Amino acid sequence: MTQSPRTFEADILIVGSGITAAMMAAHLVEHTSRSITVVEAGRASTPLRERAMARERYLAYGESPWKSDHLDDQNAFGTTWGFSPSMTVGGLAMHWGGVSPRYSPEDFRLRSLYGVGDDWPCTYDDLDPFYQEAEERMGVAGEQGPVALDPRGKPYPMPPLPINYNLAQLQQWAAKSDIATWSTPSAKNSVARDGRAQCQRCDTCYPVCPTGAKYTPDITWDALVQSKRVTLLTETLVRRLVADPRTGRIMQASGNRTDTSGEAFTISAKTVVLAAGFVWSPHLLLLSQDSAHPNGLANRSGLVGKYLAGHRNVNAYLRVPMPLIPGINVQHSLVSKQFMRPPRSSRYLRHDLRVWESSVGREPRLRNDNGDLLMGDALLSDWKQRASGATARVRAYYDVIPDRESKLILDDAHRNRFGDPMPSVSFRDAPESAALHMWQEEQLRALFTRMAKAGGGDILRMENSANDLGQEHPAGGCRMGTDPMTSVVDGWGRAHDHENLWVAGAPAQVSASCCNGTLTFAAVGLRTASAIARDVSSPITRSGAP
Amino acid sequence: MSETTPSPGNRRHFLKSATVLVAAAACAPGTDATITTDSPRAQPLRDADLNSAQLSALAEAVLPAALGAEGQRAAVTAFVAWCDAYEPVAEEMHGYGYADVRYLPADPVPAWRAQLDALDRLAQRVHHAPFASRSLAERQALVAQATRSVRGERLPSPLTASHIAIALVSHWASSPRAWDMALGVQVAPMTCRTLDGAVQKPLPIVSAASADSGVRSGSRT
Q: Which helix (H) or strand (E) holds A415?
């Protein structure tokens, strides 16, 4: 006897529970009275009270602090560098580093300004209030950079994490190369805020903050679920969206529990939001093919899963003549946006710049230069000598223009327990980026060499991203745009082909800039949430931020 | 000086070598020098059953004398606790760099236990006396002989050390207090502490006594 699937109803269904989904749910709770159901294929992972111990074991052994945070049969294949198998309440942002820069205004007008890539259908100014909202909701500590390089409508919600003893010296050193730097904006409490502790510079922000000073999406989910404004269904894998063949409206989501029951379910919803990241959002659209949509939903343009975007980097360790002491706060850095605004006349290279203290070259060693085994006092003496030097680490993410064939496809060779093909991803540079790749990395190596020399130091080690790998802070796959033939969703994230379907955050992005992307994923998601709130036309019922 | 050459495809490795005072990524051979906790506060999972007299004699031979006898004892205690609480084939931290899930290695302790016994047998063969009874110089020579096949300049993470002598040194060297001894200041890397102190130059270690153990005690978080 076949059992009928369990059924649910919701006004707004959000697929995914990562940082974008958390931000959006928090916004929607305050701006609509509609019922909100969130589905997450994974489970809740290590609760805050267990993270101090989890951190200890991570430090001691390299153990994952995040228990049961993935599904064994639900994973991506292909070029997955930059991808994480995490599938848990809170998503990848449970173990992000908390680094929260905004993109620069130029990112949204690359075609107009530089003749490469595509312009976004919105501007930096359009996104500014949503950046601010994301910063407020997460709690971002930041320092206002030079206004021309780092425009913002309002101040950061928290003062910056301090420029520590090491970074103060490195800041002066960078200034010798005429580079302005400031404290990297971070979703970490520089002061106690919203019931969360001040950062204690435990230096394991990635992968686990033991104090809750770093924002993780479970903070928002806990508050929303407690308020009973949001229903969070865990171990609930949406495998298909079903569209009305006549109107194109999404009628329901169907799938199975990922627990041992494997129970089937359906959820009927008036509004459906995909906030499942750059892999699982296009993956679900492609899986949802039917006779009316043989290439998957929202795919009139054929661009679902296309234009995957990201950036690469050049990284270097420099020996610098100053008394740096590794260990003061290694995960905090200086940042500069000075190179995100190149002259229009130059060849295209946009990059960020980060500067850290480092202990590379300062570690104890097993054998000395003669190959003699070091033991006891000889080891300590050798170590002291090595430790007396100073190392700076510098890294620049540089912008990569995505190619149309930078893509995600369904891979029949890998299937989950329900028989669904898993995603396979491959990144490809647009021709303009491919042509500039070598030159761009040469420029960055030259910059680091100049910085080292200006400070009286030299290069210890320099390394490039390998070009056959994936890209960092990946995004795209359901790009936004004004033309339904060249984009999947409109400038607000609404699918061109389905009026009640929205794709939010990372997958909607046109490009991925040259800095950490998470804050922008959240801001783009919040902008989408604001449009959804208007769309469902419900009275505003502000109840205070969760 | 040899440097880590991270696999370019491994962002996890990249992150570790980049931030550098890094967590004990116990698994991948060739990882950077690490900071470990001295003894995770987890309940011991089992008794490593390492001969304490032999281990103490080994510690005296391979750990700095500057630790003092008490500091060396503390280092041994912390190492044994670390061995006792290790969970073989636990899941490694993933996150970036690869999509597959990886697992920690098998329990290294049985091999280390055998190596400890082998050091004693070697001492019997060479000196006709137990390892623990030999002079410091003789014990160091025996350790050098037992580890002569260990190549490379790098001090591996404790979990990937191929000999117990190296594991013991590595475990001690990865403690925040060992770093403080090497740096000559009170910075206590990887230790949770207030933001306020970050802007000041860390205070120097004022006397040998203040750094006598080289091993932290108590909770850091």
A: strand A407-415
